[in-house]
Amino acid sequence: MDTTTLQKGAFSVNGFLEWASISRATFYREVNAGRIKTRKLGNKTLVARADADAWLDALPEAA
Predict the structure, then answer these.
(1) Torsion angle (degrees, nearest 10) of CA 52, 21, 14, 16
(2) Tell me, what's the pLDDT at 8?
(3) Cα angle for residues 53, 46, 17 (degrees, 5° grid)
(4) Domains of the chain: total
(5) Does residue 44 belong to any structural domain of this protein?
(6) CA 41 to chain centre
(7) Which of 7, 21, 35, 41 could bridge to 30 as Cys pair (CB 3.0-4.6 Å)?
(8) Does position 29 have pLDDT exceeding 90, yes or no?
(9) CATH code assigned at 21
(10) 47: part of which helix (H) or strand (E)?
């Protein structure tokens, strides 16, 4: 992943999947559970960087 992706204000779904290293199925499970907030711009689904960081910070720590 290049540094441009790391500095974005919002991710497309594909960009978020790459950033978070999760599958599309996991992404939609997290969205449906209300743990990842999405926004719409026309037909495009976006995840704000702040929401992505909040989701990551809310994950439990590994033992």
Answers:
(1) 10
(2) 74
(3) 65
(4) 1
(5) yes
(6) 15
(7) 35
(8) yes
(9) 1.10.10
(10) strand 44-48
